[in-house]
Amino acid sequence: MSILRKLGATVTAVAIVGVGALTVGTTAANAAAPAPQVAPKAAVAKAAAKKPAAKTKYIGRYHLDPRCMKGRVMCANKKTRKMVYLVNGKTIYVLDARFGGSKTPTRNGQFKVYRKSKNHVSKLYKSKMPYAMFFSGGQAVHYSSDFKARGYRGASHGCLNIRDKAKIAKIFAATKIGDKVVVYSG
C-alpha cells in the first residue's frame, strides 16, 4: 500500500511540474510575440463605407417601420397595402390603402402633415378628396370613393387613398398639423 502512495505522489508531482513547464513555456511565447497591429483610421473608414446598409427591421404583423413608433403617425406600407394609424406605438386603426400608379408614384419617406382640408377638391384632377391631410407637395392621405368602388384595380395620382370613410374621418379629427406620415415599401 505504501508503494502505491509513493507512486501516486510521484505521478502527482510529475503532473504539477509538467503543467508548470507548459505554463512557463506558454508565457514566454506570449511575451515574445509581437503586439497586434492596428489598422489606420482611413482604412477602417474605407472598410465601413463598403459595408452594405443594415436592413430595416420591421415591427409586428403589419411590418411597421421603426419611425412609426413615436407620436401620432399615419404609417403606410406599400407592400402590405395598409395604413396603420398609431399613437406612441399603439395601433388605433388599420386601413386598406391604395397608392399612386407607375407614372404618378406616392413618394417614400417621412413627412409631416402641413395642411388639412375636410372637403377638398383637386384643382389639377377635379376629383373630390374628402378628409385630405397633405404631407408632400400635392400628395395627401384622403378618402377615395373610387377606391371604395373599384378597389385595387385603380390607382391614385400619388395620394394615399383610403376606402373606409368613417375611420379616415376619425383620423382626420385626431390629426394635428405637424403629425408624421411615414410611407415605405416593407
Automatic annotation (TrEMBL):
Keyword Cell wall biogenesis/degradation belongs to the record: yes
InterPro entries xref list: LD-transpeptidase, LD_TPept_cat_dom, Transpep_catalytic_dom
Active site: 142 (proton donor/acceptor), 159 (nucleophile)
Recorded metabolic or biological pathway in which this protein acts: Cell wall biogenesis; peptidoglycan biosynthesis
Pfam families named among the record's database cross-references: YkuD
Record's keyword terms, sorted: Cell shape, Cell wall biogenesis/degradation, Peptidoglycan synthesis, Signal, Transferase
Molecular function terms, GO-annotated: peptidoglycan L,D-transpeptidase activity; transferase activity
PROSITE patterns hit by this protein: LD_TPASE
Protein name: L,D-transpeptidase
